[in-house]
Design brief:
This protein is an alpha+beta fold and 75 residues long. The chain has one domain: RelE-like (YaeB-like fold, 2-Layer Sandwich). It contains two helices and four strands; from the N terminus they run βααβββ. It has a four-stranded mixed beta sheet. A hairpin with a 2-residue loop joins β3 and β4. The longest helix is centred in the middle third of the chain and has 15 residues. The radius of gyration is 11 Å and the shape is globular.
């Protein structure tokens, strides 16, 4: 798996999520990090979104992994 970094906003949101929601977002992060073929071009300029059943992440890609800018939860 590639590295996953959370920026301050994403980290704050993750800390406020209930345990089940946090697990769902972590699963989506793991799945996304393991699929670099679905990432935007590396360099941190192009933002991408990935959606799960009740959550989503907004991220940018670098050569060594992704940086998560925001996460969301519908629950």
């Amino acid at each position: 798996m590639r590295s996953v970094r959370l920026d301050w906003l994403a980290a704050e949101v993750m800390n406020e999520l209930p345990p089940g929601a946090r697990t769902a977002v972590q699963d989506l992060l793991d799945e996304t990090a393991g699929r670099p073929d679905r990432w935007p071009a590396p360099g941190g300029e192009e933002v991408a979104e990935v959606f799960g059943p009740l959550c989503w992440i907004v991220f940018v890609a670098y050569l060594d992994g992704i940086e998560v800018r925001d996460v969301g939860w519908l629950g």
